[in-house]
Amino acid sequence: MDSTNRxxxxxxxxxxxxxxxxxxxxxxTAGAGAAAGISALLAxxxxxxxxxxxxxxxxxxxxxxxxxxxxxxxxxxxxxxASAPAGAKVAAVQLPTFQAPAQMPKPDLxxxxxxxxxxxxxxxxxxxxxxxxxxxxxxxSVSIFLNLAGAPPPAVGQNLAWQAWNKAMNVKLNxxxxxxxxxxxxxxxxxxxxxxxxIVSTLVRQDIxxxxxxxxxxxxxxxxxxxGDAIKDYPNLAALPRRSWWGVIYNNKIYGVPIxxxxxxxxxxPMIHQELLDAASIxxxxxxxxxxxxxxxxxxxxxxxxxSLTQGGYQxxxxxNTGNGWYPSMFGxxxxxxxxxxxxFTNVFETDAYxxxxxxxxxxxxxxxxxxxxxxxxxxxAGQAFIARKGTFVVTGFNxxxxxxxxxxxxxxxxTPNVNLLTPPAAPGFKPQYYNGRAAFGIAFLKKAPEARIxxxxxxxDYIAAPFGSEEFLLVNYGAKGRDWxxxxxxxxxxxxxxxxxxxxxxxSAVSFLSxxxxxxxxxxxxxxxxxxxxxxxxxKILAPISVEDASLGLYSATQASKGVQVIQKFGDxxxxxxxxxxxxxxxxxxxQDWKTGGGDAIRxxxxxxxxxxx
Length: 615
Known about the structure:
Elements lengths: L8 E4 L9 H8 L12 H4 L17 H4 L2 H13 L38 E2 L19 E7 L12 H10 L2 E7 L4 H10 L6 E5 L8 H7 L4 H4 L8 H4 L10 E2 L2 E2 L2 E4 L8 E5 H6 L8 H11 L7 E3 L17 H5 L6 E3 L5 E3 L4 H15 L12 H9 L3 E6 L22 E3 L12 E2 L4 E7 L4 H14 L6 H8 L6 E3 L5 E3 L1 H6 L20 E4 L5 H12 L3 E2 L9 H22 L8 H27 L1
Parallel strand pairs: 2-19, 3-4, 3-5, 10-13, 15-20
Antiparallel strand pairs: 1-19, 5-16, 6-7, 8-16, 9-13, 9-14, 11-12, 17-18
Helix pairs in contact: 4-20, 19-20
């Protein structure tokens, strides 16, 4: 089948849907972001919660070691330590046992044994398997707080997909939708009320107060149902990436089911217009010197083309801060936090690597390589500018629409766009690094309820998390066959116009709004782009060996939870001023000291206490 007719790739793992038709979405948000439909939302997400591992500064931790059982056990013990009484012994909660789906079809492109490089599929299997053996529901109503980025879907009475979900699960699904831009306010109002929905789905980010106190007061403790082998009662939940569970443990308890980070640990992606490099006979850069020469060569203001796009805001600061940390990574800086053999934590801001990166970034700005509107761009608008080739490079969330040209601003560009991964370069004397992202992009937690109801709700979530290739996967993601979707000649489900409406729109990687509630066993698959899995897996194979975890992954800091935004905002705004020449670079030392006294030292102490309790 012609690949131009297969336009909507998806990463099976996590998604947020959009109420836009395929062409409309691609025109409005092409270049915007991460797979699973959430990339367009990353601008507002900032750095989110702290991320993963135990690597020391400048020493990349391999993705395999970061995901090891030992590291997992350590992080689960540590998540409770910050709130434990002094001298108290903290018993480790067991992470849920990982168990891949038993009936998964053989992949066309096998992944790595540790799951970091995800298996790829070109087509759905000819025969779908059944992943859920018993109807999960009890006939009752199930209320759900859920993001909906666009217009609402038709009500259940006019929505056959919704009706089919209710029938298959024997429940009456009722949704309390919220717009992404309203999440913080809506979540605050929801939590302040006396009655929560049965299931609350929210993103994990700094302005959403996910604290042990909140969960202890409002949410069901899922530890007895999900810890260790107990999760095997919910086999589709057991297939969620083990790393993602680090993001839902608070006060040494499992308080939700994670919505895994898009493409697993690969959250931010350095992408470049390879066709412009080829036209100029420029090789991908190996060093920072090569990188600067490349950026200067690709900057052509008279053609409305600049070397780099970036995002404004304190969490990005021209790619210096926790938004993605692109430039500190080149100089051997740690991924946010590092920890040494004695348990001492060091933040990237305190390192010489950060100082060198800041000077390098300021030099790039002085050379004029940044698109002039960078300070006002967010992930969506930077992505639009990238696909239109106003900038040749961007660090952003993954967007399968980069390879979908018809109907976009890129369709008439010459040479034809060929977006490629930019393999991370490094300063002389350093090795290339890639900073892994957060453990979980979102969390679905349950309100307190009797045991029988908790088990029923977990069975519902287990159904929604059905893996690729299953009957339940097709129903949850694409709706009713013959109405919402029809198979192409290879059996791949292609949504009909009615299906797009029932699903609340289609994005390049998310189909139904219901599918956004849960992640699933992560594979690379596109219903409409046969090249998607091979391309994306190739990128993952480049980044996995050089990936570096954040030592604070799985650790809890009360100060970070309560003051994280305030602590970073002043620092990030000042760094932006230094990059752009409005403040001298010599202000960095004082700025770091202010960050320490303003909360940085308190966060460090809490992480060190939690880490010590785990080792």
